[in-house]
Amino acid sequence: MSCEQYKSRIAVVAAAFRPASSTPSNAVPDLDLAAHLAACPACRAEFDTQRALLASIDRGLASMVAGKPAGDFAAHVRSRIAQEGIAPRPWFAGWLPVTAAALALVVLVGVLTIGRPPRLPQSTRVTPPAPVAPAEKPHATAPPEVPRTEAPTTVAAGRRPPREGQSAANREPEVLVPRGEMAAVMRLFNANWEGKADGASLMAAAMPTTEILKPLATPELKISPLEIERLDEKGKPKGSSENR
Amino acid sequence: MDALVDSYLEPAVILDQSLEREFEQRLADSSALAFRVALGVLRNRDDAEDVAQEAFLRAFRNFSRLRDRDRFRAWLVRTTWRLALDRIRAARRREARETSVMMEELNSPERTVEDVRAAREFEQRLVRALDELSEKLRVVVLLAAIEGHDTREVGRLLGLPEGTVKSRLFHARKKLAAMLR
Ligand SMILES: [Zn+2]
Q1: Is B105 part of any domain?
Q2: Please, which of A54, A98, A126, B70 could form a disulfide with A20 given CB 3.0 to 4.6 Å?
Q3: B154 vs A: CB within 8 A
Q4: Same domain, B23 and B58
């Protein structure tokens, strides 16, 4: 192996030593390299240079992070705590915004679910036919949904199969809408929903989703975690200005 | 009798007292850590002290969930590091950075003017090389340079396995050496 090839190994081995200055070259774990260093003065010199450089780096780094804060450091911290009226927040404070957000999400999901357009009236639902001969069935506990798999599939090819608990008859009619036209369809739906089909607004190019979904956005959604946040700013009930 | 009185004290008051006592302890045993971390980034004692204080204020605010010593120190290092980086970004315009924290120890009598000049030049190159490192290598190399820190302690402070710390330290030193040749 040539000296040039050893050079990169020297850089690796030298960087692996720490502290660089305190390791003798005969402690090199790379036996092949150690043997070469013993025989080749040029590489040994390179190794020593590299180690000296790393020693300087270590010293430089150490001096960058050496020293202590001034003696009045703690006093400054205490006085700033007092001045700014800081108090430890209760341990669960960090969880409150998360909990509030989760709660808001639950409310949102609830609102979206409840606020959906009405389905076909209950009476028009197809009631499963009375079991033909229940006594003949060996497993009486079999759910009535089982025969539903045989219901004729009216869904367009590629759509997901009817959801559990939904018969083909009581599902909303599904329409395949080309991607680009979805917003327009939503506007039409929206206008119908509000009972005012306004031709001009239907022609408008882009409409923010918030407007498209307008009937679904209810005031309950505005539950704000900020109120709770402010409550816990000092770990005390709002209005208490007690300093520590 | 004292125990009787204590039992009548409101639990919150007792909690507050022990919380403050523990915080005082952290203030005593970890202020140098915060200061050094800030110093490693800012290379200016006044700024470092200010940032370290700010980190402690935040630590106090969150102290209810930072009572474990290791957890506290790891949090303190992360927060100080982040605050220091924010500060340095703000200070980039102001070029009055005192790069000669190292100079203090160079003022020993046996050093010649030439020595000091060479050391100052090396220091400036080291600072630039350090800035070239990725943040994850830089934080490891600086934390490991703090007196008394071994790779295990650095791992604890950064929440990293010791093997990861060693590997990053190796890569950081190798890169620094290559840049400073
Ligand atoms: Zn050689």
Answers
A1: no
A2: A54
A3: no
A4: yes
Q: What is the pLDDT of residue A151?
A: 41
Residue type present at position A2: S
> How many angstroms separate the alpha carbon of residue A12 from the centre of ligand 1?
15
For residue B49, give how far its alpha carbon lies from the nearest alpha carbon of chain A (Å). 6
**Residue matched to tokens 């202590």:** A68
Residue (of A30, A36, A1) closest to A14 by Cα position: A30
pLDDT confidence tier of residue B7, bands split at 50, 70 and 90: low
What is the spatial distance between Cα B177 and Cα A73, in angstroms, rounded to a whole number?
A: 36
Interface test with B, best of A46, A48, A57, A232 (most B CBs within 10 A): A57
Residue A131 sits at the vertex; the CA angle it makes with A130 and A137, to the nearest 5 degrees, is: 170
Give the domain ranges of chain A: 3-64, 120-127+152-158+172-212
Host domain of residue B82: 2-95
Rg over CA atoms, chain A: 37
C-alpha of residue A25 to centroid of ligand 1, in Å: 14
Residue B32 to residue A94, Cβ atoms within 8 A: no
Please indicate whether, in this complex, the C-beta atoms of A73 and B35 are within 8 angstroms of each other. Answer: yes
Q: Quote the ligand 1 centre to A3 CA distance (angstroms).
A: 4
Whether residues B149 and B87 share a domain: the answer is: no
Q: What is the Cα B160 distance to its own chain's centre?
A: 17
Boundary (domain end) residue, out of B68, B95, B122: B95
Residue B138 lies in a domain: yes
Closest residue on chain A to B33 (Cα): A68
Judged by a CB distance cut-off of 8 A, whether residue A8 touches chain B is no
Residues B33 and B83 grouped into a single domain: yes
CATH number at residue B50: 1.10.1740.10
CB distance A212 to A206 below 8 Å: no
Q: Do B85 and B117 share a domain, yes or no?
A: no
Is B104 within a domain?
Answer: no
Look up residue A135 and give its two tokens: 């006594």
The domain spanning residue B176 has which CATH number? 1.10.10.10
Chain A residues within an 8 Å CB radius of B31 = 69, 73-74, 77
ipTM of this complex: 0.84
Task: Mark out the alpha helices in A17-116 (DSSP H runs).
Answer: 31-39, 41-64, 73-83, 95-114
Specify the number of domains making up chain B: 2
Q: Is A75 in CB contact (< 8 Å) with chain B?
A: no
Residue B163 lies in a domain: yes
